[in-house]
Recover the amino acids of this structure.
């Protein structure tokens, strides 16, 4: 049972470089999410996709773009990385509905120098 | 908007001590409530949930009761173990909206 798979697990970027974080789920979930986790800030929603073909901004979308490639895959792109984007990034997915739990990937630890 | 407030950590306990982590929420409507746990170096995983008032969620010796009158969902465990050391997140979800998380509470249990 793979669940939610994120790649890469670790990445170091120089300021101004770009990169794409990949996420795939094998649970046939409609909804997928990208969060960032920073010390003292908890989890903050960057973007989400309620269903295939739709994406919406979360709490902290600036500096990021997303693509819902198909039902399984949801990628997060940093076009021009900044030190403020140093964080741990988590992808999550769930079925639609109020009481359904979200399943999380293992996270990507990104450092921008 | 909707929000979740958790007690700040770290919470430091000795093994076999009683644990309470407070969580209160603000929401327009009747949310589902969740506790997630994050072990070091891992992603979050669901610990327990409750979907309506007076429901009690339980798992691995942890319990939390959905209290509508006090808008609370406090996490409790009668006897903690070293292996319970982790970060605990309280969260709510209203209908088809996204999950709203608290800031997390780190629990450190010493032998």
């Amino acid at each position: 049972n793979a669940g939610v798979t994120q790649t890469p697990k670790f990445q170091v970027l120089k300021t101004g470089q770009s990169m794409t974080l990949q996420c795939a789920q094998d649970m046939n979930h409609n909804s997928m999410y990208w969060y960032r986790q920073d010390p003292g800030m908890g989890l903050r929603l960057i973007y989400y996709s309620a269903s295939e073909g739709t994406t919406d901004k979360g709490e902290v979308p600036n500096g990021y773009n997303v693509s819902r490639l198909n039902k399984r895959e949801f990628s997060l792109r940093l076009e021009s990385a900044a030190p403020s984007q140093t964080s741990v990034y988590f992808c999550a997915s769930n079925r639609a509905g109020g009481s359904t739990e979200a399943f999380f990937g293992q996270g990507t630890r990104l450092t921008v120098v | 908007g909707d929000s979740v407030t958790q007690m700040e950590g770290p919470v430091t306990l000795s093994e076999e001590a009683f644990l309470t982590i407070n969580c209160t929420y603000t929401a327009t409507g009747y949310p589902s409530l969740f506790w997630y746990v994050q072990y070091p170096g891992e992603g979050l995983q669901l610990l327990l949930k409750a979907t309506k008032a007076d429901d009690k969620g339980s798992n691995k010796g942890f319990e939390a009761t959905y209290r509508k009158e006090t808008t609370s969902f406090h996490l409790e465990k009668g006897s903690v173990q070293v292996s319970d050391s982790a970060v605990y997140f309280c969260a709510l979800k209203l209908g088809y909206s996204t999950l709203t998380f608290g800031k997390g509470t780190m629990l450190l249990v010493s032998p």
Summary: The longest strand of chain A covers residues 31-38. Chain A touches chain B at residues 4, 33, 40-43, 45, 48, 50, 58, 90, 92, 96-99, 101-107 (CB under 8 Å). Residues 67 and 75 of chain A are 5 Å apart (CA to CA). Chain A has no helices and eleven strands.
